[in-house]
What we know:
This protein has 3 domains: 2-365, no CATH class; 368-417, no CATH class; 419-503, STAS domain (Transcription Regulator spoIIAA, 2-Layer Sandwich), CATH 3.30.750. 65% of the residues lie in helices and 6% in strands. A 4-stranded mixed beta sheet has the order 3-4-6-8, with no helix packed on it. It has a two-stranded antiparallel sheet with strand order 1-2. Strand 3 and strand 4 form a beta hairpin. By secondary structure, the protein is α/β, with parallel strands linked by helices.
Amino acid sequence: MQKILNNLRYDLPASVVVFFVALPLCLGVALASGAPLLSGIISGIVGGIICGKISGSQLGVSGPAAGLAIIVFNYITALGSFESFLVATMLAGIIQIIMGSLKLGTIAYYFPSSVIKGMLCGIGIIIIIKQIPHALGYDTNIAKDFENYLDQSIATTFNETIQNLTPNAIIISIISLTILIVWENYISKKVRKLKILPAPLIVVVIGIIMSKFVDLANHQIVQLPLFSDGKDFLNQISRPNFEALKNPAIYEMALVIAIVASIETLLCVEATDKLDPMKRITPTNLELKAQGISNFLSGLFGGLPITQIIVRSSANISFGAKSKNSTILHGFFLLICALAIPNILNMIPLASLASILLIVGYKLSHPKIFLKTYKLGYEQFVPFITTIIAMIVFDLLKGVMLGMLISVIFILLHNFRNAYERTIDQEGKNHQHFINLAEEVSFLNKGAILQLLNNIPENSRVTIDGTKSKIIDYDIYEIIKDFQSNAKSKSIELTLKGINLNKI
Length: 504
């Protein structure tokens, strides 16, 4: 108890900052997801209070993630209702609990970094595309079907753009973007005391003030339900439609959500542990269970899928948090906010939230990431760019699968090339060929080794050394035995080291 009280003087101020960062992002992620805005607040509450309590991460902060927004948007559209999607979120939570129980906390390490970078960049680009209508104040019908809008001819698109622009929304977006860029890059760096005020909160406050002086349509501002008390709050939240369990697609959706949410969480856990001044290590299997329980409860109570989030976690660390109490307190602040001041939240222009998300999307898909990956070589860049393009053209799952496929092809090519090391001593009449096999020689190397042995000239001396090999596939033994059988007919003197052909 004494330790909690000692840490509270650090955790309380940090929790206030995290709350200020989380509030606009909770609303913004819900907006990008095409879900009720209240669902973003609910998932923030669950991520803070429930996940914060169960998790072994002392400084990590969980909540609705921008990285899942596009998946959520597409799945809500495919299922036809947010209530049906909540079932997928609950199932995803169950899958994560199972993953944690099976000790799959290292799953993120089996995805190539190029594919993960491509996935995050693709998400950033799609977020930008989907927030343009809200930033420009387009009519809601166009905003809901923006992809079809982009598919129209240039002339038609231009004409409809002019007709559906909302100047007031554009002004708010321009001012919001300016504040976000200037505040984060200049003001907060030069005036250290102002660093405690996160730029998204400033944007939201300015947006509320501006909404009092400009005309905006109802669909261009936040519309949270108003609650008379806690019971009324519970009565008005969305409930899962368990009829969706009859839809086979719901299980595939749940699996995708669970995998992507787990990867995002585990990557964030790794980054957060590195930032922790005390260098505490988060138990990843426990983290998966905590995220799973939280996602199950978030879906049950009408919230979005949850992951641990680096933006909030790094803010928590930067402002001196010492324990998980900071995370838990920020969850209670979100709960109090939803119950006490929904009328104030309903004054926030969607253009303000869209501007915040445009910056989030830009950071996820920053041009420097493309340039840096390109400089790493084509073996990193090709899977990276393939993932991005496939995500935009198809969807996230197909994008990641295609990126993984390209990465596997490069691995196989490496394996094909590095099956052996060959040296030739050309002194004397009979050339001496030394062939040192790699540590692992599989059937994939069959063609390369067969071609090598077939091209050895007559009257040569050949030494095949497998002493360093840990695994030699049966197919390779067969090739070597056949070569041994034919060697005499070509006057080839063969010596084997570390290779026991009696196995076949």
